[in-house]
Amino acid sequence: MVANRGAESTTSSSTRGVLSSRPRRCSRTSLPYGRNSGVGGDGYGGPVTTTEPARARASQPESRLALVRRARRTNRELAVTYPDAHCELDFTSPLELLVATVLSAQTTDKRVNLTTPALFARYPDAAAYAGADREELEELLRPTGFFRAKAQSVIGIGQALVERFDGEVPGRLEDLVTLPGVGRKTANVVLGNAFGVPGLTVDTHFGRLVRRLGWTTEEDPVKVEQVVGGLVERSEWTMLSHRLIFHGRRVCFARKPACGACTIARWCPSFGVGEVDPVKAAKLVKTS
Ligand code: SF4
To answer: N or C: which end of the chain has fewer CB within 10 A?
Structure first.
């Protein structure tokens, strides 16, 4: 998701300073995958040199303190690797971010970003969604898949916002999750990117990475959120989410991760589950 036009939105005083009047585009085209240079010749710099990946030390029990330190070091390295990590949905308001995030289920952010300009122009506020013609809305949402269910959610969100929140997206987790089709993941996207409230976005990439990194073995997103929230500074939660999602989309793929081109390999006990040859791994890395 992204800080731009897209994902979740709201307009209140608390959003000032987070949102700008210009459409923000979460999906910037170039990946600042920027350390070292040379491997692959595509701007991707390759992994931090590591002679002893965490996997080699995995047989030794790790203390709680060591785990916290490793998680925070990993986050700092990801910050160097992805200095421009951001929400990859386009949005200009909390409402746009909320709607875009709901639409992003089971599809790509790029697909959502192709759909939302016309959608946001046609439905500028919660009241417009509340009174939308269902068939017309479904046609607009068709390219994102599951368009009937998504239209239902968006109309329901519009109605709930008008009826219970004066047409504004609320800035509290406990209120956001009462909206149709809005769970903790979507709520945290809105809070983190439209309201500046730190939140962990436990999507499929986030969950896969923190398990590979050995931060947790939990599968339940709520439990993952609780565990990771206890490892990394609260102020880092939103950016950590962006960084892990960036890394999951570009390097640590579900199938065949590019371990040999991974900048956080030295802190990863799963090093070796994917391609370890640096040259072959660099060719797997996605740069946009
Ligand atoms: S790419 Fe490999 S080394 Fe890097 S985080 Fe993923 S599993 Fe670990």
So the answer is: C
Distance 38 CA to ligand 1 centre (A): 20
Q: What is the mean pLDDT of each run of 10 residues along the chain (288 residues)?
A: 35 34 37 33 41 56 96 98 96 98 95 98 98 98 97 98 98 97 95 97 97 98 97 98 97 98 98 98 93
Nearest atom within ligand 1 for CA of residue 262: 4
- Rounded to whole angstroms, the Cα distance separating 241 from 86 reads 9
In a domain, 8, yes or no: no
Tokens encoding 96:
């746009």
* CA neighbours closer than 13 Å in the CB half-sphere of residue 246: 33
Ligand 1, from 57, 246, 273: best to mutate by most atoms within 8 Å of Cβ? 273
CB 172 within 8 A of CB 71: no
Domain span holding position 55:
39-86+200-284
Where a domain ends, among 166, 194, 222? 194
Per-residue pLDDT at 57: 55
- What pTM was computed for the model? 0.81
